[in-house]
């Protein structure tokens, strides 16, 4: 199913990633955030960062560790969307969220976010879901706020010098923690 109309969002076909998905997911996540291809969608970070968005070794660890899963939505050409959900520091954690740039804005991301919230709440008993967003991404933060997330004001440094997370084009990058009570 590829329809994401409101009545079909709950039926979005989501599966759990396996180690065989690492390379296609790295390509998907990178295409959604980095380089010219990312400019097709609205989630691009191409003006902020170059390089990879996710390191394959980090992704393998996220797929295999306990209380951590990578959710995947496929279409005919492979992964269409993905997100990482886990339990970290006493709460649910959400990250590595990507939708193929040419399919952004159609409701797939919203549905996948809802599924990640369900996993954290119903499968792992978490009452709070946290994420970190580059604070320069006002449009993305606003999207999460419309979905019930709250800006905490807690800022974390960007990992400058660690190219596993990209090569910064600016020296003022940092993360803001957002939270939602589930």
Helix and strand layout, with pairings?
Layout: E1 14-16, H1 22-33, E2 49-50, H2 56-64, E3 68-75, E4 78-88, E5 91-99, H3 108-123, E6 128-134, H4 138-146, E7 150-157, E8 167-168, E9 174-181
Parallel strand pairs: 5-6
Antiparallel strand pairs: 1-3, 2-8, 3-4, 4-5, 6-9, 7-9
Notes on the structure:
With 182 residues, this protein is an alpha+beta fold. The chain has helices at residues 22-33, 56-64, 108-123, 138-146, and strands at residues 14-16, 49-50, 68-75, 78-88, 91-99, 128-134, 150-157, 167-168, 174-181. The strands form 2 sheets. A 7-stranded mixed sheet has the order 1-3-4-5-6-9-7, with helices on both faces. The chain is globular. Residues 1-10 have low confidence and may be disordered.
Radius of gyration: 15 Å
Low-confidence stretches: 1-10
What's the total number of strands?
Answer: 9
How do the helices and strands follow one another from N- to C-terminus?
EHEHEEEHEHEEE
Strand count, sense and barrel status of the largest sheet are:
7 strands, mixed
Spatial strand order of the main sheet: 1-3-4-5-6-9-7
Structural shape: globular
Which percent band covers the strand fraction? 25-35%
Overall structural class, as computed from helix and strand content, comes to: alpha+beta
Q: Helical segment tally?
A: 4
The percent range for helix content is: 25-40%
Distance between the termini: 27 Å
Whole-number mean pLDDT: 91
């Amino acid at each position: 199913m590829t329809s994401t109309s409101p009545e079909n969002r709950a039926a979005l076909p989501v599966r759990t990633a396996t180690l065989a998905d690492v390379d296609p997911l790295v390509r998907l996540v990178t295409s959604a955030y980095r380089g010219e291809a990312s400019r097709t969608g609205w989630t691009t970070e191409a003006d902020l960062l170059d390089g990879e968005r996710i390191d394959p070794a980090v992704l393998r660890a996220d797929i295999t560790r306990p209380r951590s899963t990578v959710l995947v939505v496929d279409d005919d050409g492979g992964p269409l969307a993905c997100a990482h959900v886990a339990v970290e520091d006493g709460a649910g954690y959400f990250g590595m969220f990507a939708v193929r740039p040419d399919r952004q804005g159609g409701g797939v991301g919203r549905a996948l976010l809802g599924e990640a919230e369900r996993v954290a709440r119903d499968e792992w008993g978490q009452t709070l879901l946290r994420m970190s967003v580059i604070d320069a991404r006002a449009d993305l933060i606003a999207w999460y706020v419309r979905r019930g997330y709250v800006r905490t004001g807690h800022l974390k440094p960007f990992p400058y010098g660690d190219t596993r997370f990209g090569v910064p084009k600016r020296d003022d990058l940092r993360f803001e923690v957002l939270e939602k009570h589930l």
